[in-house]
Design goal:
Helix content is about 75%, strand content about 0%. It contains 13 helices and no strands. Helix 6 runs parallel beside helix 8. The protein has one domain. The protein is globular, with a radius of gyration of 20 Å.
């Protein structure tokens, strides 16, 4: 039933999905965040909620514009449910803005296949990644995704290889100049330090262990299922799937090595995971399995609020 409902992209379905996110957001705020009824706190929470709504609409735009999935709402549904499952992602402002800025970069990267305004898109992608890296230095690894896209779409030449780096350095140099002028370069250096940790003990908590186990299990199933499909697919679909898998691998590396292990770092993993899972689900012939997977993710996203 749920598979049939989200097997469309009608505006009413998008509205229902945004309402589902609103439920997750309000539940997370009231249950896990010390709530202050001051005007400032209410304004901040409202602003963050609006920011998330904008992010989700931007994600939907990227999915539809670049045909990253078929004509369905599985990806947006899964992304919202994953955000709800890892509710710490809704509390870290710097990671929210970092991922929001990365979406502008991803929009340019995934649209490189069109062949139009390639150099402008490469500069813009590097520029947005540069700003995102100022907020979270690990974002800089997504510059690799730009070069993966160049190889996948056969756009490798000296200019195209150089432009993303120029775009990346543009905001970083501007930020350095600002701090140099005000003699506060230590703040910049602290922001650009790669703090890392391989301590995963925090993930032993059930609120992380259950949704992560489900996500990893279905993702592995998805990748094993999709790899043969990539070989058989048309050039356009094959290129898109290769780029999505590259995106997913970079995200996994960031999550594994990030010093933060409180669930918020999983923000980087949600977007590519949602796309991979959607591509897997839409190719499953059995409606029972489709419904089972979609319901499982929804049930787990609710269960974690009681752990």
């Amino acid at each position: 039933m749920i598979a049939n409902f989200f097997n469309k992209t009608k505006p009413v379905i998008i509205v229902n999905l945004l309402f589902l996110f609103a439920v997750f957001y309000m539940a997370a705020i009231f249950l896990f965040k010390p709530f202050d009824f001051s005007i400032a706190a209410l304004g901040l929470n409202l602003a963050m909620f609006i920011g998330f709504i904008f992010m989700l609409l931007l994600i939907n735009f990227i999915l539809r514009k670049n045909n990253l999935t078929e004509d369905n709402s599985y990806a947006l549904y899964l992304i919202i449910v994953l955000i709800g499952s890892f509710y710490e992602t809704m509390f870290t402002t710097s990671l929210f803005f970092s991922n929001l800025l990365l979406l502008f970069a991803f929009r340019k990267i995934y649209s490189l296949k069109s062949g139009f305004n390639t150099k402008s898109k490469l500069f813009d992608a590097g520029f947005w990644i540069g700003i995102s890296a100022i907020l979270c230095v690990w974002s800089i690894f997504f510059l690799i995704l730009v070069y993966i896209s160049l190889f996948i779409y056969n756009k490798v030449n000296l200019k195209n290889l150089t432009i993303p780096i120029i775009g990346l350095l543009f905001p970083i140099i501007g930020f350095f100049t600002y701090h140099f002028y005000f003699d506060s370069t230590d703040l910049l250096y602290n922001k650009l330090i790669f703090n890392f940790s391989l301590d995963f003990s925090n993930y032993n908590q059930l609120k992380y262990l259950i949704p992560l186990s489900l996500l990893i299990a279905v993702l592995l199933w998805s990748i094993v299922f999709l790899l043969p499909k990539i070989v058989q697919a048309s050039t356009t679909i094959k290129s898109a799937l290769q780029l999505i898998i590259g995106h997913f691998i970079i995200s996994v590396i960031i999550v594994v090595f990030s010093a933060q292990k409180n669930g918020s770092e999983l923000f980087f993993l949600i977007f590519p995971s949602g796309i991979l899972l959607a591509n897997f689900i839409q190719k499953i012939l059995s409606k029972t399995i489709k419904n089972l997977i979609l319901y499982l993710f929804l049930i787990v996203s609710v269960v974690v609020y009681f752990l």
